[in-house]
């Protein structure tokens, strides 16, 4: 049950880009802040806006 | 578990599945429980996944667990990230699930519940799931290349070009049709219009909150946004009951269409973090929650289907869209059975997240199974309605008339009894002024969903809240597709124009952004306007056009897949993609031919144009018919070229005139597979 729950949380965090932000922080050696999130949005937003959403 | 027990279990699944399919196919007369549809679907999907997808994985694709995926080889923590298969499954499902599997089955229910259900089951297991699975795997083996790139490399330059044109066309038609569905759901509905209008400031607020107050806390922000949306639904009731405020939000279809066009343009040009991203999060939050709730609601309530298995409209005289089951049921239901658009997702973000090659089976095939289940739920939601109610909501005024008594009499004469008083009390129960002529599928789905929910939670008293929750859910979905689609279309146009004049390709240059956004919005806006002005409601002509273009994109994807399979030396198993390809060619080419040249003006665009011309009809409507016929013709001609180019390539490889070589990334042993072992 605990494994199922943690998997659910992981999935939801991935879908909602929270994991992507965590990875960005680790990769760029930054801490959670407005500035780091703005930098993340600059990098990630460029990818996200090219993603089609299906019909 | 021992082998004999496993065999027994699968035998039981097969027996129950056959029993359920036979029951829904042969049942006549009285109402039938929706659980038969659910049982049939669960068993068919389980068998399809366990046996057919395994056959494809082992015999056709030769999935190799030891082969490193691009997520492992090119891992950069950004777009290439080896990710748990369940997480990728959820991510992929969230990307492929849209309004299509909800709207298509609702419209196709005019034939009865049976044709749509059988097509959803068979189409998904043998077509849609296979397409998504093989395209995902082939993209994984090519470092996450897109469908267009794979078409260019494996089929030929023409294939790549046609895939590009097909994608742009489907985006434009899709956005026009989706916007029309929203317009038809919101016209003369102050409650719905207020709720949807409020989602724009809510999304903007979420964007600012996420950036300024709680950076990176997306789930928390989405939860907050969802709470505000619920408040907006609640507030909408108050607005609809306040005469002066209700006047502000009671809009005609043309006004709503103009507002959506302006919104689409603004959303495409605004920074992504401000509107698109938060709306996308909010939409996903509501989407996943509502689909789960609907599944639980159907299982708990196991409602009865009032729609017969087959209606009189199998003869092609349906009021929602004209044409017989073949080919029109198969293009009306696209995303729930097979959707070319999925090939874009399967060759987009998903292949860059796959950790092991063997996991493509669960993600590609499995996520489409889940999507198909959503289509079954939509069928249930439409078919729990009394047929008279269903046809009153979905039939355009041009067919049944605008006066409630006249419409009810017409529909009753078809053999589906309904009275104006019934419809009036239903409209009051869901907080609307009228439910007649609400074409597009969304209102019928919302009434069905409200019906299911209100029986399990809150009773009849809260039916209006559930109805507007369902409308909000669909409109939010669709407007997100509109935002994202306009932007993706804009980038594609910019990429192409960049070859002509470099500055036009710069995605940060505002004149180019505004120009190309305007171009895409004008293109889908034209189709939307055409639908709004169509006396037959627009859906009759535009939804088939969307279905044809979506299935033609699937035809291109299956051409690419078959070509790669033959080049891999697996031609003896190529029937896995060749059979759905042949079926789609038969369906789309027949549908296109009929939409262009059928002498019945309700089916053929050109016949309708001639009828209008003979009766001195509007020049604009005549032009629209001719334009629709031309768009259909151009798409068919282009896909024919891809088919010919693919067939020539197959002949060259099979006859030995060309070496059977595929352009895969070289084999690198997987470290992740070793670690897991």
Number of domains of chain B: 1
Q: What's the tally of helices of chain B?
A: 28
CATH architectural designation of chain B? Up-down Bundle
Main sheet properties of chain B: 2 strands, antiparallel
Q: What oligomeric arrangement do these chains adopt? A: heterodimer
Q: Structural class from helices and strands of chain A?
A: mainly alpha
Most extensive contact: A-B, 38 and 60 residues
* Total count of strands of chain B: 2
Give average pLDDT of chain A, whole number: 89
Order of helices and strands of chain B: HEHHHHHHHHHHHHEHHHHHHHHHHHHHHH
DSSP summary, beta strand count of chain A: 0
Task: Name the CATH homologous superfamily of chain B.
Answer: Amino acid/polyamine transporter I
Instruction: Write the CATH fold name of chain B.
Output: Amino acid/polyamine transporter I
> What is the ordering of alpha helices and beta strands of chain A?
HHH
How many domains, in number, for the residues of chain A?
1
Distance between the termini of chain A: 34 Å
Share of helix of chain B, binned: over 70%
Description:
By secondary structure, chain A is mainly alpha-helical. Chain A is 73% helix and 0% strand. The longest helix of chain A is centred in the last third of the chain and has 15 residues, at 34-48. The termini of chain A are far apart. The model of chain A has no long low-confidence stretch (mean pLDDT 89). The two termini of chain B are 21 Å apart. With 677 residues, chain B is an all-alpha fold. A two-stranded antiparallel ribbon of chain B has the order 1-2. The interface between A and B is large, with 38 and 60 residues.
